[in-house]
Amino acid sequence: MSDLESIFDVDNDIKDTEQPDVQAVENSSGFPTVEKLFEDTGHKIFENPVYYKMALADEGDATQRLHTLFQKYATTKDPKDKSIFRMQLISVFWDFIGRTAQKMTAGTPEPKRYMLRFGILHPNMLTAEAKAFLSKIPVKDELGQPVYYLDEWISMVGAGKMKCSTTDEAGPSSPRGNMNAHLQSLYDKAQGKIEGAQGLLRSKHAERLTFEKQLSNSISRVMNHAQYDSFPEVFELYTDEQKQAFSEIQEQAKALLKIDRESASYMKDLESASEDLQTINGKLEEAGSEKKVSMDLQSINTEFSSVRQMAKMTVGRQGNAFPILTSEFFRPTPIGVGFRENIIKQLSWVESIDSEAFIRHYKNKPNRIVPYVLLLPTYGDFGMCWEPFDKSNRATSRGRIAIPMYPKNLTLAVLSAVGDLRWQVAKEKASFYWMEEGLTGNYYQWFQAQKLKGDVKAYFIQDYIMWMTKESEGTQKLDKDVRGTFWRYVPFTQAVKEKLKDRNLIYQELYQRDKNRAMSDGY
Predict the structure, then answer these.
(1) Which distant-in-sequence residues (6+ apart) come within 8 Å of 194 by Cβ?
(2) pLDDT for res 181
């Protein structure tokens, strides 16, 4: 079995189970609009007779270890033995794809890429239906959202386009490494200032367009002059309404000038940050290509360790931690698998209900910041937030959430991730006062008053799921105080509020509270 060719004989030991092909599904809504969930025709990668051989090639002794154990798992008939081999495969497979991740490049063979992306070690572990389904999932990212498969994520870290996910453990360092880390931190801060300034400028531009439209309407009203019926050649004087429009024009002009002054300040910040970014980028390039390659490898190893921990957390203690995709656990349903296009649709749905799901305030202005989303090829049931934002750029950096691709209920997996993000962002914002103020403070005080035990965040996430799936439809499932807290700090979109206020007196009262707060100075 030492010869590389001989260790791939397992191809003949695993047989396909023929199933009807899955039809392509299209959808017109998205985050942005997802024009097509699936390609019209599937690729043939999973039909490659040497897929398994290519997936395992060039990994040294790790290839032999994985193949030997996988062959035992795939061919054994005894349920007890199969269970033992399955447990042993968890660690061996993760170690193997960790080695594969170190070599991720644009030229990485497709079987290795799909092994990381979907957990597909051997296509014959999947039914024909499952392979047809997976082959139609779009390969290229056409939507431009920060949603990534594992192979893409690792490649970005290796290329220095994304920082490693924060961990509590400090790795080995050197003076040169510390210098590069410091420069990278400055680079991230400058990039954050650019993103923040751009967000503020976009917000100010939208505000300007609103006032310009109002100004245009006011001027149109002033310029509308009718003729006297008795004197056809004479036009009427300004009406009281037109005279009022002059006052409106004056206020609108003042508002536009104020917006312009603020925009000029943000533009100055943008230009300054852009110059800083160019300077820092030049210093990073001067750090030397050899050191950069070494650092990239270290970054990949560090990130993969974090990813493995994320995978465990999405699965939980009692979940299915088996990391290889197999039809024994996989059901290819269009609404149940967390591929990129599906996740973007889900996030769009979340935002259509939770108006501030991805909003953070910067300089008292709302800034929409969609987190990085890592799609993990696991059978986990829970999405989770790894970082609410980058510690070096709390204002405008993206957070990081991880979502399992093969959960029992994809909507609940997405909601648990967003709920976790919601809690952590609010907690970090409140800082030392998280038990007293804002969303976390109000919820924690209710939690204490109810004398509940356990993890308060876990309770919050479950209530968030109930808020999004039941309360948004007018079905009252939450405690009255929790409903009041969520109504204010996890507000529904205006469309949902308008629908609910006519549904029940409870929501009508909450809707009226919004109006009362809007008229008070403290709102």
Answers:
(1) 270, 273, 274, 277
(2) 61
Question: Residue 404 phi/psi, 5° resolution?
Answer: -70, 145
| Under 8 Å between Cβ of 344 and 410 | no
Residue 268 has pLDDT above 60, yes or no: yes
Position 290: which residue type?
E
Question: What is the C-alpha separation between 73 and 370, in angstroms, rounded?
Answer: 41
Nearest to 150 by CA among 313, 342, 387, 374: 374
pLDDT > 70: what percent of the chain?
88
What pLDDT does 124 receive? 94
Tell me how far CA of residue 418 lies from CA of 40, 295, 353, 385, in angstroms. 31, 32, 12, 7
C-beta atoms surrounding 274 within 10 Å: 15
Decide if pLDDT at 474 tops 60: yes
- Contact by Cβ (8 Å): 201, 245: no
The domain locations on the chain are 175-289, 434-523
**Residue type at position 436:** E
CB 418 within 8 A of CB 370: no
Using CA atoms, how far apart are residues 379 and 82, in angstroms rounded to an integer? Answer: 18
Q: Can you give the pTM of this predicted structure?
A: 0.79
Whole-Å CA distances, 191 to 202, 299, 321, 390? 16, 20, 37, 12
